[in-house]
């Protein structure tokens, strides 16, 4: 597994994947830079808790960026192997197909959480720049940075499954577009829809539920995808 | 007898289409096994099943006396392969491509330089594969298959896209491997001449069925030369020969015989001369392997 | 040119990806049927259709339309990138310019077809919800055609990127980077009108100014949409001319 993962990290060299994991969180915070840059006074009037309101503003874009980011990264990873049908070379090595799949998932999860960490620092950095108050709500900051990623694990598992078994990457990308429409319409969705989870909304107002569901259902979808991947013939 | 590769009634169907049916391959250690057949005969499908890339619809595959479905990883640890078009990561250099595989195989880094040396890609080791010619990519694929010094090497059409000097180079390399490293090699091709120059054993597939499997010598025995007699009156001469109990064929004014000893030739000439027929030429005509191959596959299609 | 269009259509049809235009009406139905703004609107005198149109057009035009048009352009270039389709196509007696234009026209026709199917989904939502008010045909047409016109520059840029990159993910990433900010841009009276990716929303927004042909002033259509189109189309066109295959 470790061997495969280091090989997978080598394969994403020069493909701009690291850049994308940087652009994602940067873009989310940059939108607030524009937002606060244009109408800071108005936004500060909206709430007593300036940090909390700022975090909510940042968080309004986080689920969208995560859903689309996952679709892009999974499709990228799959197309690296698809381009010259390197799957056949990879699977003909003395490694199990299950490990090949696990390695891809792990790589993506690492990129996702790396992105979340960057999001936390960018959010904090701009928050401090805005001078929103002396007490920085570190717990809330960490929550809004990492919880959406945990809640998005089922989406990651689903997108990886679709991307790795589709010859036409138009399919996983289109699924990703549906995903972002769902994420954007989170407030309309029933709680069981996985695309609602990164928004951290649910009828009990307990973000932790989304995190636990994300990890649980994410694991389940991962297993289903892995079994299906291993079952298929390699063309 | 110990077989490195042995398949029993190996079959694969895609929907209604039967790609491979009841294949019984037997490949011994140290052989260069030429796997021959026209395009679309089921060679690549068979190779994919040998590598565990596809699951057989029925039948079993034993490699190193182990079952591929059960001990796939142990078996693959000793196999190097190149299936169809070479696979590579275009955005990485030749060295990095091999490094990505080396990490998984867990062999020493010096092997990368060694295999690049073997396929003569050392000068371009740090260039991106994107800009490689087809022949260079093919050689990179072969280098990748040699990385972990496999005991069994499976090469699917390895000389595809190579120029004549490249073909000779690869051919010499393939011939060297069993001698120097005790490797067993399976090499598929649709070109008979190619197999003829490398293989020690031959298996021929047509429409998913194995129609011939034996040594290359046995295959060449099919290629017995025929003897032709050019005479002033072919038809008349032919009738005389038949009347004398000599089974000969007649076509386009020429009398010819399959399998003909020197004594028999002398006898025939004597008969013809006695009957007053002038013998202009007696020639031995070697049959090309292409002819035989065509004959075999045509026979299969006729059935 | 007609032959080239037919050939492009044939290849696209055989790629079995044309049904992707059904994604448009599916999204329309999803939003239209799950949004329940009627309750909030009670007591306000308004044509019932407008209620659905507001929420449907918002999501559809803001995110879906710009993003899916990029998928179309990637699909139409996909089979050319695979196994040397470009060199085969361009070795035929056709000019590169015509190939580019044919692909562009075909994508725009597909987007138009999707817009019309989306119109169908608006009807369907109204029927399901039992609307009795008269259907605001003129306004809806403005919105459907307007949204289509607004994708002209977006499709040109995406076609450019799809020719440049083999993978789906790379042009899509660029598309996402430009599309997501329009959520903010449309809230700003200063930025919104000048941001090309916000134009599908502006031109489908039925609350806009109805005096003109479209919901946005002609100057904006000509400068932002028209200007964007010329910039991206020529950029892609010249890139394709010089690209080594």
What Rg of chain C, in angstroms, do the CA atoms define? 19 Å
CATH topological fold name of the largest domain in chain B: Rossmann fold
Percentage of β-strand residues of chain B: 25-35%
In terms of per-residue confidence, which ranges of chain B show pLDDT below 50 for 5 or more consecutive residues?
none
Q: What separation lies between the terminal Cα atoms of chain C? A: 22 Å
GO molecular function (chain B): ATP binding
Domain ABC transporter (chain B): 5-232
Keywords (chain B): ATP-binding, Nucleotide-binding, Transport
Family (chain B): Belongs to the ABC transporter superfamily.
Structure notes:
The complex is a heterotrimer of chains A (235), B (303) and C (245). Chain A contains ten helices and no strands. Chain A is an all-alpha fold and 235 residues long. The radius of gyration of chain A is 19 Å and the shape is elongated. Chain B is of the alpha/beta class. Chain B folds into two domains: 3-221, Rossmann fold (3-Layer(aba) Sandwich); 226-286, Alpha-Beta Plaits, CATH 3.30.70. In chain B, the strands form three sheets. Chain B has a six-stranded mixed beta sheet with strand order 7-8-9-4-10-11, with helices on both faces. In chain B, β1 and β2 (17-23) form a beta hairpin. Chain C has 245 residues and is mainly alpha-helical. Chain C has one domain. Chain C has ten helices and no strands. In chain C, α1 packs across α5 (96-129), α2 runs antiparallel to α3 and α6 runs parallel beside α10. The two termini of chain C are 22 Å apart. The model of chain C has no long low-confidence stretch (mean pLDDT 88). The A-C interface holds A 16, 20, 23, 27, 31, 34-35, 38, 61, 64-65, 68, 71-73, 75-76, 79, 83, 168-170, 173-174, 176-178, 180-181, 184-185, 188-189 and C 15, 17, 20, 23, 27, 30-31, 34-35, 59, 62-64, 67-68, 71, 74-75, 78, 166-170, 172-173, 176-177, 180-181, 183-184, 188, 190-191.
Task: Briefly characterize the structure.
The complex is a heterotrimer of chains A (235), B (303) and C (245). With 235 residues, chain A is mainly α.
């Amino acid at each position: 597994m470790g061997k495969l993962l280091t090989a997978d990290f080598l394969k994403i060299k020069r493909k701009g994947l690291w850049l994308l994991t940087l652009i994602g969180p940067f873009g989310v915070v940059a939108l607030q830079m524009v937002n606060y840059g244009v109408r800071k006074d108005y936004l500060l009037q909206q709430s007593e808790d300036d940090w909390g309101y700022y975090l909510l503003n940042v968080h309004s874009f986080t689920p969208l960026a995560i859903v689309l980011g996952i679709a892009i990264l999974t499709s990228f990873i799959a197309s690296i192997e698809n381009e010259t049908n390197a799957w056949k070379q990879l699977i003909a090595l003395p490694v199990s197909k299950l490990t090949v799949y696990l390695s891809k998932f792990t790589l993506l999860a690492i990129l996702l959480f790396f992105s979340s960490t960057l999001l936390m620092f960018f959010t904090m950095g701009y928050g401090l720049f805005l001078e929103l108050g002396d007490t920085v709500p570190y717990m809330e900051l960490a929550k809004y940075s990492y919880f959406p990623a945990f809640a998005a694990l089922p989406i990651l598992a689903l997108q990886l499954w679709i991307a790795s078994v589709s010859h036409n990457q138009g399919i996983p990308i289109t699924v990703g577009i549906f995903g972002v429409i769902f994420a954007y319409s989170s407030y309309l969705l029933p709680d069981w829809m996985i695309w609602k989870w990164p928004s951290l909304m649910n009828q009990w107002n307990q973000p932790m539920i989304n995190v636990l569901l994300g990890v649980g259902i994410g694991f389940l979808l991962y297993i289903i995808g892995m079994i299906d991947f291993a079952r298929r013939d390699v063309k | 007898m110990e077989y490195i590769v042995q398949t029993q009634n190996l079959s694969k169907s895609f929907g209604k289409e039967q790609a491979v049916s009841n294949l019984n391959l037997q490949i011994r250690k140290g052989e260069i096994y030429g796997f021959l057949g026209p395009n679309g005969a089921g060679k690549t499908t068979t190779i994919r099943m040998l590598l565990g890339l596809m699951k057989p619809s029925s039948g079993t595959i034993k490699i190193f006396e182990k079952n591929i479905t059960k001990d796939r990883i142990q078996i693959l640890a000793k196999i190097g392969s190149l299936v169809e078009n070479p696979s590579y990561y275009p955005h990485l250099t030749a060295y990095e491509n091999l490094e990505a595989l080396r990490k998984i195989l867990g062999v020493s880094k010096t092997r990368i330089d060694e295999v690049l040396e073997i396929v003569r890609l050392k000068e371009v080791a740090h260039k991106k594969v994107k800009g490689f010619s087809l022949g260079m990519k093919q050689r990179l694929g072969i280098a990748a298959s040699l990385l972990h010094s496999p005991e069994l090497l499976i090469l699917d059409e390895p000389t595809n896209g190579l120029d004549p000097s490249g073909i000779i180079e690869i051919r010499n390399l393939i011939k060297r491997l069993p001698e120097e490293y005790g490797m067993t090699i399976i090499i598929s091709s649709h070109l008979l001449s190619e197999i003829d120059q490398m293989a020690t054993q031959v298996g021929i597939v047509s429409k998913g069925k194995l129609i011939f499997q034996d040594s290359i010598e046995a295959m060449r025995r099919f290629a017995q030369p025929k003897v032709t007699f050019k005479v002033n009156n072919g038809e008349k001469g032919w009738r005389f020969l038949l009347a004398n109990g000599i089974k000969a064929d007649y076509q386009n004014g020429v009398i010819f015989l399959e399998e003909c000893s020197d004594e028999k030739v002398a006898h025939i000439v004597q008969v013809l001369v006695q009957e007053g027929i002038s013998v202009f030429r007696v020639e031995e005509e070697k049959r090309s392997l292409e002819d035989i191959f065509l004959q075999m596959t045509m026979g299969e299609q006729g059935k | 040119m007609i032959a080239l269009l037919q050939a492009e259509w044939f290849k696209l049809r055989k790629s079995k990806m044309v049904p992707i235009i059904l994604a448009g009406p599916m999204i329309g139905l999803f939003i239209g049927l799950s949004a329940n703004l009627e309750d909030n609107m009670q007591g306000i005198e308004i044509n019932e259709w407008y209620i659905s149109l507001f929420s449907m057009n918002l999501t559809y035009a803001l995110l879906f339309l710009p993003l899916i048009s990029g998928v179309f352009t990637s699909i139409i270039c996909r089979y050319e990138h695979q196994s040397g389709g470009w060199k085969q196509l361009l070795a035929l007696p056709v000019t590169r310019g015509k190939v580019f234009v044919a692909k562009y026209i075909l994508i725009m026709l597909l987007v138009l077809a999707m817009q019309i199917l989306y119109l169908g989904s608006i009807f369907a939502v109204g029927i399901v919800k039992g609307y009795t008010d008269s259907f605001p045909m003129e306004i809806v047409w403005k919105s459907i055609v307007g949204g289509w016109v607004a994708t002209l520059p977006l499709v040109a840029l995406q076609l450019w990127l799809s020719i440049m990159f083999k993978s789906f993910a790379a042009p899509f990433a660029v598309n996402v980077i430009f599309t997501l900010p329009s959520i903010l841009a449309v809230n700003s009276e200063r930025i919104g009108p000048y941001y090309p990716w916000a134009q599908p929303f502006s031109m489908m927004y039925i609350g806009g100014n109805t005096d003109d042909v479209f919901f946005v002033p002609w100057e904006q259509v000509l400068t932002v949409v028209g200007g964007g189109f010329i910039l991206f189309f020529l950029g892609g066109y010249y890139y394709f001319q010089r690209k080594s295959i």
